[in-house]
Specification:
The chain is mainly α. It has 3 domains: 50 residues; 97 residues; 115 residues. The chain has 14 helices and no strands. The relative contact order is 0.05.
Amino acid sequence: MDSLITFLTNPQNLFTIIIGIASFVTIFVIAGPMLASNDLNTRMKSVADERKRLRERQLEEINKKTLNSARGPQANSFIKSVVEKFNLRKAFESEETISKLRMAGFRGQTPIYVFLFFRLAVPIILLILALGYFFLINSHEQTTSMIFVYSFGLFIIGFYLPNMYVNNVISNRQEILRAAFPDTMDLLLICVEAGMAIEAAFNKVASEIGAQSLEMSEELSILTAELSYLSSRVAAYRNFAQRTGLEEVKSLTTSLVQAEQYGTPLGTALRVISAENRDARMTRAEKKAAALPPKLTVPMILFFLPVIFVVILGPTIMTVQSQF
């Protein structure tokens, strides 16, 4: 033990130990990454394989959703028989109705049958429920004339409820499409400037944008299919604009139609549209931010000011009460 202490306290031996430790650390720092390169390559390969598996799963979900949306579920036999028996397609079906259902993401014949069935069923159900409530449960508090007025009012409301539901679905779907459109334009611009044909560009963007918006991926997939089998690309572009109902998409389709008919540079037009959509997105955000102060006035008056008054005046009131 004494010899070890003597060895460690010797300045020359201590200097030799420090030099040895420093040399070992230097060799470890320099050679460590070289020795670990195989492990790094293995990890990078595993990450790439995992990304590939996730990508394949995502593409499978997108294709499945698009296929199901295009085919649609099979129509219920009872619903179909009711619609055909009362000839509801002739009474209520129109091009506007079909267009709205497509804008809401409902395609095929089944959504038409379901929509027409509920336009007939919902008013009748509400009328029966209202009459049953007023005559069986609350028969003594309302006169007969008022009962029929309320029941007829519910009947009218029920007649418009399916339209209100479809309009609400359209509004929500358009918000999702509008949020994904700037990124869609950026991806489309990159693909076009890389030299891809417009069909291949839309197909590529449809697969890439699916992680952000399945709705936009679905619409672009349908557009790609229509570009393949329709005789006119202009018709496919216009169908795309009608299905979405967005002004941004209409501007894009106008540029695509002009490029198709007159040979105008598509990349320049896409770059301008992309910049305009970014600016419009920022303008909408600034508009929402500017509208916050007026909207917060009423909640502050109702919820914050009473609490502040209680906190400020409460101790004073308690002090005055304790003195008297």
